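Anyone else keep sequences and C-alpha cells together like this?

Example one:
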Amino acid sequence: MQPIMLRSLFFPRCCPMCEDYIGEKTPAGLLCTRCLSELPRTEQAQKRHNSTEMALSGMKRDIARALKVMHIKQAAAFLFYEKDHPIRQVIHAMKYADQPWIGYQLGKQAAIEMQYADFFDEIDLIIPIPLHPKRLRSRGYNQSEYIARGISDVTGIPIDTTHVTRKRNTPKQALQAGQDRKNNVADAFIVNHPEQLYHSRILVVDDLVTTGETMRACLQAMKICRGAEFSVLALCKAQ
C-alpha cells in the first residue's frame, strides 16, 4: 500500500468545521465547500463604525475621533465568533490543537473576499500580533502569523515579525474580565527600531477581537512610529 493511502486510512483529512472527509489532496486546514459557504461573515470591510471599530474605540461615543487618536484608518473582522456556531471549534483547533494551517487558509479567504472592498489598498506592511517567546515555544507557532501569511499570499503585501515584540508573558485574556483585561496587556508590547516604520501604512492582524484590549495595547506601543497609519484585520470578532 502506498504511503499516501496509509495516511488517508489512519489520518484522514477532514474539514475542520464539520469533520467530514474532504480528501488527501485537499490543502491542510481548508474547509469543505458547504462549510465555507456557511461561515458567519461580518461583511465589515466596507462598513465603518462596525463592531470591531467600536471595540477598538473603547466604545466611546465619538468613534471617529477615538480611532483618529489611535491613528486607525479602518478596522474589520472577517467572521463573527458566534456562541453556538462551529466556528468556535475551528478557531480552538487553530490555536490549541496544532492546526495553524486553518489560520492560513482562513486568512487567504478573508483576503480574497475583502480585497474587493479595497481594504488592502495602500498598505505597505502586515504585522501580526506577536506572542511572547515563552508561549511561542510552548505552542510551536503564532496563529496570527499564519493568518497574516494567508493574507500576504493573496495581496502580495510583505509581513514583518521583527519590529513588534511582546515583552511580558501575560496570562490569557480569555481568563480575564472587565478592567483586568486592560491591566493584563498594559505595556505588554515594544517596538524595535520604530524609525524604520515611520510614515508606514501598516495592517495589524490578530485572530480574535473581544473587547479590543490586546489590539489597543499593541497599537498604543506602535504610536511611537511617527506618521504611521494603521488598519486592523481580525479573523474573528466575538459577539
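And example two:
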Amino acid sequence: MELQQLRYFVTVAELGNFTRAAEKCLVSQPSLSQQIIKLEKEIGHPLIERLGRSLRLTSAGEVFYERASNILCAVEETQHLVNASYTLENKKIRLGAIPTIAPFLIPPLLKKLFQTYPDAEITFREMTTDQTMQDCKAGDLDLAFLSLPLEDDLLHVEPLFSEELFLAVYPDHKLLKKKKVTSKDLEDESFILLSEAHCLGQQIVSFCQHHHYLPRVSCESAQLATVQELVGLGLGISLIPEMAKNIDKSKKVKYLSLSGIKPTRTIVLVTHPQRYQSNLVKAFIANIKEWCPLNK
C-alpha cells in the first residue's frame, strides 16, 4: 500500500468522479483506476461501487476513507513539523572552545557571523579540552576550537593557524635589558602556569622539557587573565598566546618574543565527521577558514 494510492482513493471519494480525480491528481484516468483496483485487491474488499457514470463508497470504502484521510492528514502535518524543525535547526550553531581561545577568537568570529547571518542562533560552551572533545563525540557540539596536540581518531581535526607564545614578564624584569632572550634564560625563573586541566600549561612544560629543563612553577591558575595579573605583580613569568597578548592594553605586563626556536601552538577546528551539518554550519565553517587568519 502506497501513499499515492491513498491520495488517489481519497480524491475519487471526495470528488465522486474518476475523470475529475485524475485531473486533480495530474495523472491519466486509466492509471488512477488501475491504482484503485490494485488497492482494492490489497485490502481484499471492494471500496468503490461503479454505477455507470456515478460511483459511491461501499461500507468498507467508507471505513477506509476515514482512515486514509486521517493518515494523509497525519503525513502532511508531519511534513510541516519536519520542515519547521529543519528551518529552526538550520539557524542554530552549537559552538565550543577552550578558555585560552574563547575570549580572544570567538567574539570577533561571532561578530562576523551575525553580520553575515543575522538570524543565526548560537549556543556556546567554554570548557576544557577533554570536556569539549567529549561533547563533540556525543554530538552536542557542531564544531569546536581547540589546540594541538589532540589524540582522538573519531573526530575530524583541521588546523586553522599557528600563533606564537610570547614571554610575559613584569615591567621592571631584568630580562627586558637583554638584547636577545632565549629559552635558556628562563631556566632559573619562576613560572606562573595554567592548571593541568588546560592544555596551554602542558604545552609550556613540553617546550621547557624540549630545552632540557623543567619549569619551576611558583603558581597555578585556572584563568589566563589571572596568570597575566600575577605576572604583572612580579610573582613570576609565563608564556602567553599571541591572541591574548594582542588585546592586553593594561601595560601591567611586558611581552618578549624569544630568540631561536619560538614556542608556538596550533589552533584547530574540530568536528564530528558523522554529525549532520546544517547549511548554516557548513557556511560558518567555510567562512572561518577565511576569517581566522585575520584574527592572528
